[in-house]
Design brief:
Strand content: 5-15%
CATH topology of the largest domain: Rossmann fold
Low-confidence stretches: 373-415, 560-565
Radius of gyration: 35 Å
Helix content: 40-55%
Number of domains: 4
Structural class: alpha/beta
CATH architecture of the largest domain: 3-Layer(aba) Sandwich
Largest sheet: 5 strands, parallel
CATH superfamily of the largest domain: P-loop containing nucleotide triphosphate hydrolases
Number of strands: 12
Shape: flat
Length: 565
């Protein structure tokens, strides 16, 4: 009779700290503690599933009871080590807290604590999912956990440490086990499959590592499934079919087609996903992760990305072809659409609507204005028009201000300059006596250099500065507040550092909010002038004039111009 098959997750469970995959911060701390004879009486291991909590606890039990002595390198061949590996060591008491939550179970456990170990050097209590114990059980455990006998060690493991009472946590040394990176998991899978003599591809292992989401046990379980699915070998298509995924390269190609506005190719991608019965949730996850990686590549190019070299090359090409603001918009659309799966008739419907939104929307460029239009009837206030005009415009218009069309304006037009330049105060020499223009310009400079907080800047814009710039000055505020002096302290300090100015602060009830001496009022005037000039340029532009001549643009269609500084 042939020996029964042992799953990879059990067969390749680490037997000592040096075989442990990842978790170096935990293994080194425990090795040093054991070698120096400073072993704590209670340890708490926390982390997500399949990252090594129970495995580390068993290794600690072997280190303490190995017949060669207390060591960080258990021999693995003595009777004690083999018994612990086989799960039959009497003095290693493993308890599943999920099935023994009652206080009576805990008291029965504690009744045996005073007795010496039967076989080993220490009696080790390994309580898995310890957060499942009841409140009464925790209370019963407190005193023993604080001062246990010298021959007893407690090892706790949990995936939800937030549910543990702080009184329990404070009596333990806590180690947080981190999820493993896809790179570490794929390298571990490659070693395991090489020992098993199983053929594989690097991209297939990368897909398995990503699907495991940081869990080594999940990765090995998926690998077992892939071996059976692929009849003894693991290929990329095998993994994709098994997990209901599409190739990462296909996802990046989908994003490239969306960015270029190629609706025909996007339709082909949708047909492919329908034929393969793709899990829509996995596609959402893949799209959001790809956009996340693209954004990182664009903003932080030196940051190492967890992906294969082929994917990294394709992603770099895509990151250079899509502007960052479009990537941010795409990410928001995908993440929000992911949450709407439960509201759609089917997950696939939610995915397809998300792809349509990605095709339909683009961020407005900084040098463009928006003409708001409506298909409803428009009534004009012009008394020369006897009847309202009902003329819908087929498509919206976005006319760049500072693009090629701007250069086509007549040279004699006084409004031929970029209207955005009107939004800023004119540069002046900051010397001599303060004037309204000098105070306005200095505040604008400080805002651009981000030297002032919003509260102080807002208050400073509601007052005027008088006196000598390099000597005694007085700030007159139109706002009466108890904290006036304190709020303006960063401004007065900054003026003192830059010019040696000594500033006194005073409330002037004669100053009103619309007084043109105030920087905030001056800014409103500049905004009005800029909008007026932008509208004039838009109306006089060749595109608008051509639409008027063709009868495609009627009076009142140019309702709103959004000026983007």
């Amino acid at each position: 009779m042939s020996q029964s098959y042992q799953v990879l997750a059990r067969k390749y469970r680490p037997k000592n700290f040096h075989e442990l995959v990842g978790q170096r911060h935990v293994s080194e701390a425990l090795i040093n503690a054991i070698d120096s004879g400073r072993v704590h009486h209670a340890y708490l291991f926390t982390g997500t599933r399949g990252v090594g909590k129970t495995t580390i606890a068993r290794i600690v039990a072997k280190c303490l009871n190995c017949e060669t002595g207390v060591t960080s390198r258990p021999c693995g061949v003595c009777g004690t080590c083999q018994a612990i590996d086989a799960g039959r060591f009497v003095d290693l008491i493993e308890i599943d807290a999920a099935s023994r939550t009652k206080v009576e179970d805990t008291r029965e456990l504690l009744d045996n604590v005073p007795y010496l170990p039967t076989q080993g050097r220490y009696k080790v209590y390994l309580i898995d999912e310890v957060h499942m114990l009841s409140t009464h059980s925790f209370n019963a455990l407190l005193k023993t956990l604080e001062e246990p006998p010298e021959h007893v060690k407690f090892l706790f493991a949990t995936t939800d440490p937030q549910k543990l009472p702080i009184t329990i946590i404070s009596r333990c040394l806590q180690f947080v086990l981190r999820p493993l990176t896809p790179t570490a998991i794929s390298e571990h899978l490659a070693k395991v499959l090489s020992q098993e003599g199983i053929a594989y591809t690097d991209n297939a292992l990368w897909q398995l590592a990503q699907a495991a989401k940081g869990s080594v046990r999940d990765a090995l379980s998926l690998t077992d499934q892939a071996i059976g699915f692929g009849q003894g070998s693991i290929g990329e298509q095998t993994v994709n079919d098994m997990l209901g995924l599409i190739n990462q390269a296909d996802l990046l190609a989908l994003l490239a087609d969306i960015a270029s506005g190629n609706a025909q190719n996007v339709a082909m991608h949708i047909e492919q996903m329908r034929m393969q019965l793709i899990d829509a949730g996995n596609i959402f996850d893949g799209l959001s992760e790809a956009l996340h990686q693209i954004a990182l590549r664009q903003i932080l190019p030196d940051l190492t990305l967890n992906m294969s070299q082929a994917e990294a090359k394709q992603l770099a090409s895509l990151a250079s072809s899509i502007d960052p603001q479009t990537v941010q918009l795409y990410y928001q659309i995908v993440v929000q659409a992911r949450e709407q799966i439960k509201l759609a008739n089917t997950p696939m419907q939610a995915l397809e609507m998300c792809l349509l939104r990605l095709l339909a929307f683009r961020p407005l460029s900084n040098d463009a204005v928006v003409i708001e239009q409506s298909t409803e009837k428009k009534t004009f206030s012009n008394p020369d028009l006897a009847e309202p005009i009902a003329e819908p415009i087929a498509e919206p218009i976005a006319e760049p201000i500072a693009d090629a069309n701007a250069s086509q304006l007549p040279a004699s037009t006084p409004n031929g300059d970029d209207p955005r330049t009107l939004l800023k105060a004119k540069p002046v020499d900051l010397a001599g006596e303060w004037t309204d223009e000098k105070w306005d310009y200095w505040l604008q400079t400080m805002r651009e250099e981000k030297k002032l907080d919003n509260d102080g800047l807002a208050l400073a814009r509601q007052g005027v500065m008088t006196g000598d710039i390099t000597g005694q000055s007085e700030f007159l505020s139109s706002v009466d507040t108890k904290n006036l002096q304190q709020t303006l302290e960063p401004i007065t300090k900054l003026l003192s550092e830059r010019f040696g100015t000594t500033v006194s602060v005073k409330y002037d009830k004669k100053l009103k909010g619309e007084d043109t001496r105030l920087p905030q009022a001056r800014q409103k005037l500049r905004q009005t002038q800029a909008k007026t000039q932008a509208k004039t340029q838009l109306v006089d532009s060749p595109v608008v004039q051509a639409l008027k001549q063709k009868g495609q643009l009627q009076q009142g269609d140019l309702q709103t111009v959004k000026l983007l500084p």
